[in-house]
């Protein structure tokens, strides 16, 4: 089985291609980037920012783990999307011993679900 994945920090769209067709999964991250702190913030404000940062990292870890669960048994993986989320996921896949399955990492802008599915079919020549 092959999989293509478009992701950013807000959502991931995974297209799994098999001999019997394709299936699509959408995984929302349910997170927003943490707000930056201001210079000269008091101790209480720094603690609040630290708690927001920790909450953000926890949710981001949960988001990436959900994606990895779906990708774990795929023979070939194409990863694409804007920004840094794709590189962060590649590092996590490497830690899990799945980097050898990654066939490509591409920077692309926002795409519709249909465009994502078409890109995956095109990449795997299906």
Task: Provide a brief overview of the structure.
The protein is an alpha/beta fold and 126 residues long.
Describe the protein.
The protein is an alpha/beta fold. It has helices at 43-71, 85-95, 113-123; strands at 2-7, 11-18, 21-28, 76-81, 102-107. It has a single domain (2-123), classed as Nucleotidyltransferase, domain 5 (2-Layer Sandwich). The chain has 3 helices and 5 strands; from the N terminus they run βββαβαβα. It has a 5-stranded mixed β-sheet, with helices on both faces. Helix 2 links the parallel strand 4 (76-81) and strand 5 (102-107). The longest helix is centred in the middle third of the chain and has 29 residues, at 43-71. The termini are close together.
Number of domains: 1
The CATH superfamily bears the name: eRF1 domain 2
N- to C-terminal distance: 12 Å
Unreliable parts: none
Largest β sheet strand count, sense and barrel closure: 5 strands, mixed
Write the layout of secondary structure elements.
Blueprint: E1 2-7, E2 11-18, E3 21-28, H1 43-71, E4 76-81, H2 85-95, E5 102-107, H3 113-123
Parallel strand pairs: 1-4, 4-5
Antiparallel strand pairs: 1-2, 2-3
List its salient traits.
126 residues; alpha/beta; Nucleotidyltransferase, domain 5; five-stranded mixed β-sheet; 3 helices; 40% helix; 27% strand
């Amino acid at each position: 089985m092959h999989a293509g994945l478009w992701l950013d920090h807000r959502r991931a769209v995974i297209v799994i291609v098999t001999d019997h067709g394709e299936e699509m999964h959408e995984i929302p991250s349910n997170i927003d980037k943490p707000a930056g702190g201001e210079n000269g913030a008091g101790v209480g404000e720094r603690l609040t920012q630290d708690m927001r940062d920790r909450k953000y990292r926890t949710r981001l870890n949960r988001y990436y783990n959900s994606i990895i669960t779906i990708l774990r048994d795929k023979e070939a993986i194409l990863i694409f999307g804007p920004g840094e989320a794709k590189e962060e996921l590649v590092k996590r896949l490497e830690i899990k011993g799945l980097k050898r399955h990654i066939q490509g990492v591409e920077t692309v802008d926002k795409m519709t679900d249909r465009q994502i599915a078409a890109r995956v079919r095109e990449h795997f020549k299906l």
